[in-house]
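In the laboratory, one determines a bound structure by crystallizing the protein with its ligand and collecting diffraction data. In a computational setting the workflow is compressed into a single prediction: the sequence and the ligand go in, and a structural description comes out. We illustrate the idea with L-tyrosinamide.
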Amino acid sequence: MVGFPRVDAQAGARSFIPRRSRAANSTGRAAPPPAEPSREALRSGRQRSPLARVEDEPREKERLERPWRVWLHNDDYTPMEYVTQVLHDAFGVGWLRALRVMLKAHVSGRSEVALYPRREAEERVSAAHARARGAGWPLHFSAEPAE
Ligand code: TYC
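The predicted complex, in structure-token form:
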């Protein structure tokens, strides 16, 4: 019956006001607006702003697909062969490039590994960390938005 045209006995006029909104306003006051998503929820992309429009969706998709850069960081303990192996296995880097990336981090402190979509970058870094911790090495990678 929601939204069904009714005849208002007093006014004698047709009304299209849905029943639900009348019930919600039985106190004479407007119902409180729904809670706003927190800033953090909006920033992380967990929740969309209620003001977001349908046209914003491609931009949101673009934001998630923007490439992320994975960095390799030097340390004093992990063996060079082990670093090269992880670059090859966990990041799909060819052997020669893996060797170069490892040497660059060894010499200058850090080195760019590759670009991936955000989710993939995070997953590869987590997998590489899990593997290195399991083997007892402090090997460290980080990921950040490219550009
Ligand atoms: N510095 C390490 C060593 O001398 C090797 C190494 C290179 C470690 C690059 C981490 O990202 C790294 N055994």
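The longest strand covers residues 110-117. Keep in mind that any predicted model is a hypothesis to be tested, not a measurement.
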